[in-house]
Every structure is written in C-alpha cells, then in structure tokens.
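Bench log, entry 3. Co-assembly request; chain sequences pasted below exactly as received.
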Amino acid sequence: MVNNQALSCEQVWREISNYVDGEVDTGLHSAMHEHFRACSKCAAVLAGTRNVIHLYGDERMMEAPAGFSRRLEKRLAQNVRSSGKNWSTWSTWLIPVAALALFAGGLHLANSLTVGSPLKSEHAQQAEGIPPDMPVVVSVDAKIFHVAGCDFIHNKDKARTITAREAMREGYVPCLRCMRKYLQTLASGHAALGVEADASQNADLEDDRENSEGNVR
Amino acid sequence: MAEREVALNNPAFNNPAQAATVREQDLIARVQRGQNELFYELVRPYERRVYAAALAILRNETDAEDVAQEAVLKAFANIRQFRAEARFSTWLIQITVNEALMRRRRERTVVMEGIDDRRDEESDYAPREFADWREIPSESLERKEVRQRLAEALASLDRKYREVFVLRDMEQLNIQETAEALGISVASVKTRLLRARLMLRDLLAAGWEQGWFSRLPFEKGNKPW
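Structure output for the full assembly:
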C-alpha cells in the first residue's frame, strides 16, 4: 500500500499508468497530483506518458498495407459466393457498369450509373432519420467524424463542420475516443439514455479532467 | 427491423455515437438474418484495427494480413453467435487476437525478443529520460517518417508489452477485455501496460532530443512554445 502523504518518485512511477487511466483512489490521486506539482522529473514523465498514449491512439498509427481493403473485400466476396449468396464488390460491378456506360456513350448515363463517393454506403444511408442537430467535424482522407475540438481530427486545415446525419450519410463513422466521451457525458447527465459507461470510458474522462487541470510541472 | 427504423427516425435520437451503435446493431441483425453481402460494411470501419492487432502479435506483415483475413472470415462464419452484450469491434479484435496467437503457436515461430523479456515483470521500471519534451503534436503524425519512428519504437518492445499496449492504447480495449483477449490476469495487464508506456516514453524522449520530431511545418525551426 502506498503512503499517500509522502510519495517517492519510485512510488509515483509505479502508479503513473493507473493515474493516467483514472484507476487510483482519491487519496493517492491527490498525493500524486501534489507530487507532480513539486517534481519536474515526474511531471515530465507524466506528460510524456500521456503523449505516448495520445500519439499511438491516433488512427493514423493504424496503417495497413496498400490494397489491404481490396484484398479483404475480395476474399470475403469469394467466401460469401461459395456459400451461395450474392455479393456486390467494387470489382464485380465496376466492369459491367463501365461497359454499360460505354455502350450508352453518354456522360449523363455514365454518371447515373456510378456511385459518387467510395465512402457512401448503404450502411450510412440508414441514418436518414436522424435529425441534424449535432455539428461534427470531418476531414479529407479520413473516414471518421469527430466532436469539435477532438485531438484526433486529421488534416485540420481541410476539416469541415457538417451535421452528424450528413457525416453518416457520407459514410463517416464516429471517432472512438471523442464520441465515447461525449456518449458518457450524456449518459451521466441523462440516465434515460441507458448507456453503460465502462471502465475505459471512466479512465478517459478522468484523463480529460486531469488535462483540464493544466500541465503540472 | 421495424423497431430499428422507428429508432432511427426518432427525432429524439440525436446522439451520433448512439446512432452509429444502433446502425451497427441493425447491420448485424440483417447479416444474421442472411444478408451476407452487408458483412463487409460491418467490418470496414475496423479493418485497420484488425490488421494492427494481428501485426502486434505476429510482427510480420504477410502473416498479419493473412490472419486479419482469416479473422474476418471467422467472424463472418460465427456472426450468428454474436450477442449484443459485447461491442462488435471488441468481439472482432478478440477473434483476431485468438487467430494470431494460434498462428504463432502453430508455426512455433522463434521470435528474437529484447533483453527485457526475461526480466521479472513485477520489478519496477525506472524511467531513464527526464527531458522536458513537452508534447509531440498529433500533427506530426502527418509525416510518414514520424509514424515510422513510432512504429519502430513499438516494434522494439518485447512481445508481452507490445501486445498489451496495442490492445489497450491502440485498439481501445479496456483492461478487462485486454486480459481476456490475451488470457492473462488484470494485474499482469496493468503491470505490462505501465512498462510499455514508460519504455515507449523513454524511446521517444530520446528521439525528441535527436530531432525525430523537429522540422514540423508550423515550427519553422523553432518550437512553438
């Protein structure tokens, strides 16, 4: 058990990960908070640890090889076909569509047979009935939409704000981080939403609270 | 399905995250009823996470892609067993981790591990770098070189630390889910996570001093602070 009154740096390092995750009790949290205010070394370790989590949690760190999506979809399509079901992939419908477009010879017809955005999907179109109440931020070359101010917005200079319904209609999916926090905030304020807050969400909120207290150094 | 449509059209239903969850649940229900062609739509938002989880365990891009595909096919084959109590993404990642661990066991791959692998994980890890490196802005991730450096630092960790870190901090599983996926205790997850985070911090702090993250477009040769 850690003596909360007089923490050594070693004790702080041992608990720093739990501290960031919001998994220390109130007494220890206060003691560590005080320690970070007084100890520049530990404050640097704390800031660096948070930065590590922040950087690696960014979706840009989730890179897959070129063509990964296409190969995965193709293999899934083969699998579904072998089970006797229909499957429409980009590669299977593109050729007949292109041939039909050429045959018709008209740009208008070609446009009418081509899906405008690769992000747009049947998946997204199911969200038609959602009122466009909440502004969300999307950016070019990403498939995620964010709460305004989220640290994980890419290409911020190319970001645009649209409604949640528009984002989902365009095939964007919610940011795992900021939307979870948003969801939990709503859940804590409106129990009627019935959203379960898991330990991870608690940790995220705790981390947020810490961040809002400013960098302790 | 009718209930779902009612929910989706409910004017009170204006939470995007909740809407996405309902949409996903609807998609799952439709696939479970036989609309198999929708399965890729269900998986698409998570496909890179699936690959990253496989790569963290196998450390080989070819194997990771193969296992990622196998995991998705396995999820497809078992979609009728999926129950809504779990998050679909967590379920998918857990299948991926299982597939990757099985692949590693089957191939009995001899992986060169770092010197820390044999050290007692209960022993304390003392940070080595105390440079006040402040913050590496997330904008730096636009640069492939930076992402590569971060990936190399992660790859240099011992397997047991890397796996926990990837599942917890990149895949966003919680501590319990990470423990279940890897078949280890919650206490072990916490211990390994602590070491992984501190080791990465040390590795990146050294990189900061060596200028890995300098020359950011907005810095123009100077740190903004």
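DSSP finds ten helices and four strands in chain A. Chain A touches chain B through 85 residues (CB under 8 Å).
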